[in-house]
Structure formats: structure tokens, C-alpha cells
Amino acid sequence: MATERTMDHKTPHAGLIERSGKLYIIFLALLAAVPPIATDMYLGAMPTIAKQWHVGENIVGLSLVLWFVSFSVFLLISGPLSDKFGRKPVLINGLRIFVISCILCATASNVWQLIIYRILQGIGAAAPSAMCMAICRDRYDGERRKRALAYVGAILAIAPMIAPTIGVTLLKLGSWRFIFATQSVLGLITMLISISYRETIAEKVRGSSFAVMGRYVNLARNRGYILAVTSMGLIVGPHYGFIAFSSIAYIKFFGLSPSAFGLLFGLNGFMAMLGAFSCARLTKHLHDVRLLTLCICGCITGALGIVLFGSAHYLAFAVCMSAFTFSCGVSRPLSNNLILSQVDTDIGSASSLIVFYQFMVGAICMSISTTAWSHPILAFGILACALPLIVLAIWPILLRIIRMHSCLF
């Protein structure tokens, strides 16, 4: 399949965000924030919606489940399409669908309309999520890419933590419809900034859209990429599991008040953000491979602490979970950089698969963590320990077979 080179981002009349490195990072952060804004901001309103329309919460829950289905499917479609048509048209059209669907959700007159509009919202949210990683790979190399991924990692860590609080606040101020109205405004701001984005794809893939979708076959043949995706993606699983499990742990198991839960939940978000921001500084003093190894060991140590001491006291659980989250936060930019370094073509497809896999691992960990275990803290600790142990076991093999780039040595 032939390729053609385009280097629009180097044209002399660069867009607004091209002239400001900080604004470009904000642009990438907004793209990364779209999925958690679309899901977690809405969670607290689900019981209210069910009560208003006199339907079961399981019916309203379909609006969340089917959002994830449409989001996941179109993640895998958006990447290859961006390799063929470019990042910008896929991004703009995705955000356009997202904004329109948010407005439709805010005006829905029954639960079935809401479910349909949420499916459309998932389709729209897939494009910015996939393009965020692809644009990072297109535009940055080496240390600059790690810094950009660190900011993206901070948003990916903190957004799921603060989005529910924002949603509940909007619910108290007025109606659940305010939540979707706010999402539409944020989506519109992101779309307007995206208009200034100059195309970054270096090579466009030629061929039919159906043939372009087959580029995943090429990725499957890339052993370094596949092993890096499947192993590194496991590290973030317990972080997503904690988001779903935290209220069970702090309120139900330890009997804390909602306000105390909010503080401890916020602590975990702070540690994730601190870890991501610390990554760029730590790489100045430590080799990437050594730092990633320490991060994996840090995750294991924190998880072992949960297994051994987590059930004894809520502070023990909070401290051990904070250690895990900080280590995970540091590792995320490094692991994503490692994965992206394994591909020089089909970057859109590769980026989509990264996000898709991490979401799937996170969803499975959420399901396992919220199961009615007789010893929930212990069960969560075992899960949080098992996944980084698997990564540690695979790590030497991964280092031997991947084609290392200069940013790792």
C-alpha cells in the first residue's frame, strides 16, 4: 500500500496553537479529557434520571454501557481513518458529532432518546481520544514527547477523579441537563482550538477505507509493539479499578463519611497527577528503562502493602494505594512513549489500539474490583499486585525483542 508525505505542520503560516508550545499542550490535554468528561461527569446523575423518568437504574445504565461499546468500536475505526485521510478531518468531525450529541442529550425527552444520543456521543468521543496519542507521536520525539505524554497522563489520571464531583455540583445547581450542556461547551471549545491545528501526519496511507482497516494486521506482526501494548497496558488496570472500588472501600468497608471519602479520593488523584508531572524530572536523572523498572516495582510494593495491611485501617489502605498510584503515574508517559516508539507507520491505528486496550483492561478491573468479595480490600490488593507482577515477568523478554529507539538508551 503506497504512502504520500505531507508535512503541513512545517508550513510557514502555522496556526495559533503551533506558535505556542503551552497552548499545544493544552490542546492535547483537552483531547485526552473528552472521554472521562463524557462518562464520569454523568455518573452521579444516573439515579436522578431514573427517578425522573420512572425507569430502573439498569435501563439508565445502558446509556453508559452502550457509550463504552460505541466508543470502543469507533476507537478502532478512527485510527486507521486518520492514517488515510489525516488527523484533522477525523478529529474535527468526531468533535462535531460529540458537541451535537451533547446538545441532544441535554434535550432528551425520554430514556431511550438519551441512550441513542449517548451512543452518538461515544462515537464522537473516540476521535479526540485516539488522535491525542497519534498527534503526540507525529509531532514530538525523545524528551519532548515524554513531556507531552506526561501532561496527557496527568489529565488521564486526574479527570476521572474530579469529573464526578463537577457533575454532582452541576446537579445540585440545577438539572442533570446542565451536565450535558457543560460537556457541549467544553467540546465546542476543544473543536474551536482544533480548527487552528495544522495537520501533523507525515505519511498518508493510500487505498480503500476497507483496506486501511486491515492495517491492524501489520501491527499484529510487530512483536515489539504488541508485547509492549499488552504488557504495559496492564499497569493502569488497578488505577481504573480503584476509581470504581474506592467508595466501597472507604464508605462501605471502613465506614467513612462521604466528605472523608472525597478527601481520600482526591488524594489519590493528586498522587496520580504528581507522578505524571514528576516523570519528566526523573528522566533527567534516571535511564528510562531503569525508571520504568522502579515504577513497576513501586506498583508491586504498594499493592503488597494493600494485601498485608490495607484491611487494618483506612490510612494504611490510603498510603499504600497512593504509593501504587504515584508509581503508575510516573510509568504512564514512559510506557506510552515506549509503545509509540515501536511504530513508524500506521501511527493512528497504533494509537487507537493503545487507548482501546487500556480501556478494556480498566473495564475488566472495574468489574473485578466491584464484585461482592467477602474480603474486598484483600481481593483488590491481589488484583493490584498480580498485574504489575505479570508485567515484571514479561519485562526482560520485552527489552530483548523490541527495537529500541534512542529515547530508551
Task: Please supply descriptive tags for the structure shown above.
409 residues, two-stranded antiparallel sheet, disordered C terminus, 16 helices, disordered N terminus, mainly alpha, Growth Hormone, Chain: A
Rg over C-alpha atoms, rounded to the nearest angstrom: 21 Å
Oligomer: single chain
Strands of the biggest beta sheet: in what spatial order?
1-2
As a percent range, the share of helical residues equals over 70%
Which whole number gives the mean pLDDT? 86
Total number of beta strands: 2
N-to-C CA distance = 32 Å
Low-confidence stretches: 1-14, 405-409
Helices and strands, in order, run as EHHHHHHHEHHHHHHHHH
Main pleated-sheet profile: 2 strands, antiparallel
- Tally of helical runs: 16
Record the SSE blueprint.
Layout: E1 3-5, H1 21-40, H2 46-53, H3 57-85, H4 87-106, H5 111-139, H6 142-173, H7 177-195, E2 203-205, H8 209-213, H9 215-221, H10 223-232, H11 237-253, H12 258-282, H13 288-309, H14 314-340, H15 347-369, H16 376-401
Antiparallel strand pairs: 1-2
Helix pairs in contact: 1-5, 1-6, 1-7, 2-3, 3-4, 3-5, 3-15, 4-5, 4-7, 5-6, 5-15, 6-12, 6-14, 10-14, 10-16, 11-12, 11-15, 11-16, 12-14, 13-14, 13-16
Characterization of the model:
By secondary structure, this protein is an all-alpha fold. The protein has two domains: 3-213, MFS general substrate transporter like domains (Growth Hormone, Chain: A, Up-down Bundle); 220-403, Up-down Bundle (Growth Hormone, Chain: A), CATH 1.20.1250.20. Helix content is 78%, strand content 1%. It has a two-stranded antiparallel ribbon with strand order 1-2. Helix 4 runs antiparallel to helix 5 (111-139), helix 11 runs antiparallel to helix 16 (376-401) and helix 13 packs antiparallel against helix 16 (376-401). The model is unreliable at 1-14 and 405-409 (pLDDT under 50).
